[in-house]
């Protein structure tokens, strides 16, 4: 290497060292490379809503049994929002059609199914046996399975309160009931209405006409007309339409709404409405399914749980009568009053409940007799 080249290399090295020294002296340093941005965290997929289906025995309409169930469905839907997705089929007969509809609901991916009338019990049991991953809820029945629960409302409490009003307002001491299907639930309501009336008026007699249907406005109208022509001046019903109240309105008599507030159908005839609020139970049942605590069994709710009430009592009902109804309601709520407290005598004069004895749910669930004061025979 020539001396000239050596001097050039030494100068370059020296210049580089000097430059580095100057930079360090000025406080400048080489910046580290920026760290790579973290990968975005994927959001967990939103859980699919619980699919729930309801089978209704009548049309939803704007009054009665099915209307009350649908109001309960809407209240539950409002409670849980997008956690649930509901659907319903209305006017499903208590026949082979019920099994077809309920089976179709299960096949469509509904994992909670409500059947809202007594006649769906056997069809639901059949479908439940084939769809073990689906939870079934049956209204007013008594048979259960591992994946089928029963639920009911103590409608007899509303019937008793209606009776207290009817017994106070009748002028003929003759009351009438339009009955649907002669099962213990309905017979119990007829008797409870009579017992409530007799608690304020021992002279009360009750006549019954059966229509053998839950919803048949023409038959209900015919039955109500027959009762009025037979001397009845206050009507009660265990049917689903407003026909009985409307008939009383047209014929100048008094009557009650049933299952929902029916004031608008007969404002002059209307004495009050014995209503069911299904909302509390539907919220409980769906909550159980969502949080994994659902189990089989039987649930029976009344005034105490907010499921039964007497509403829109007519203005001309005396204050003392309204006070009696309020006292009954308060007693039902705190458990200090039971409508079926002995002595209670059957139609044949034999004691069915001893003095001070209170009917338990087993007794109430098996009533197939009329109490004293109810005329006619229980259909077989």
From TrEMBL:
InterPro entries for the chain: ABC-Purine-Binding (IPR052910), PnrA-like (IPR003760)
Alphabetical list of Gene3D superfamilies matching this protein: 3.40.50.2300
Keyword annotations from UniProtKB, A to Z: Signal
Pfam families, alphabetized: Bmp
ABC transporter substrate-binding protein PnrA-like domain sequence ranges: 51-316
CDD domains, sorted: PBP1_BMP-like (cd19963)
Cited PANTHER family: ABC TRANSPORTER SUBSTRATE-BINDING PROTEIN (PTHR43208)
Protein name per UniProt: BMP family ABC transporter substrate-binding protein
Taxonomic lineage: Bacteria, Pseudomonadati, Pseudomonadota, Betaproteobacteria, Burkholderiales
């Amino acid at each position: 290497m020539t001396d000239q080249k050596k001097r050039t290399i030494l100068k370059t090295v020296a210049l580089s060292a000097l430059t580095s020294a100057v930079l360090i002296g000025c406080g400048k340093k080489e910046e580290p490379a920026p760290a790579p941005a973290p990968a975005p965290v994927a959001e967990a997929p939103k859980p699919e809503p619980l699919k729930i289906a309801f089978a209704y025995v009548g049309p939803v309409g704007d009054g009665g049994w099915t209307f009350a169930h649908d109001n309960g469905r809407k209240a539950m839907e409002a409670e849980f929002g997008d956690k649930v997705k509901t659907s319903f089929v209305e006017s499903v007969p208590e026949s082979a059609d019920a099994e077809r509809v309920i089976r179709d609901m299960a096949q469509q991916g509904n994992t909670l199914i409500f059947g809202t009338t007594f006649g769906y019990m056997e069809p639901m049991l059949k479908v439940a046996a084939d769809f073990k991953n689906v939870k079934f809820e049956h209204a007013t029945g008594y048979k259960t399975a591992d994946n089928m629960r029963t639920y009911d409302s103590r409608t007899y409490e509303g019937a008793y309160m209606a009776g207290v009003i009817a017994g106070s307002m009748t002028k003929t001491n003759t009351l009438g009931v339009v009955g649907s299907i002669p099962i213990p639930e309905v017979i119990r309501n007829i008797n409870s209405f009579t017992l409530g009336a007799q608690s304020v008026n021992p002279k009360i007699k009750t006549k019954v006409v059966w229509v053998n249907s839950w919803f048949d406005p023409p038959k209900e109208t015919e039955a109500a007309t027959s009762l009025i022509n037979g001397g009845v001046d206050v009507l009660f019903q265990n049917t689903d339409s407003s026909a009985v109240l409307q008939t009383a309105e047209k014929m100048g008599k008094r009557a009650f709404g049933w299952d929902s507030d029916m004031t608008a159908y007969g404002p002059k005839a209307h004495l009050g409405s014995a209503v069911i609020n299904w909302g509390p139970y539907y919220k409980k049942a769906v909550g159980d399914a969502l949080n994994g605590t659902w189990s089989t069994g039987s649930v029976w709710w009344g005034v105490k749980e907010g499921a039964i009430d007497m509403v829109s009592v007519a203005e001309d009902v005396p204050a003392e009568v309204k006070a009696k109804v309020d006292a009954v309601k308060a007693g039902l709520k705190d458990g200090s009053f039971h409508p079926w407290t002995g002595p209670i005598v059957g139609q044949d004069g034999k004691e069915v409940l001893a003095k001070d004895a209170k009917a338990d749910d087993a007794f109430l669930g098996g009533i197939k007799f009329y109490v004293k004061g109810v005329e006619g025979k229980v259909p077989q």
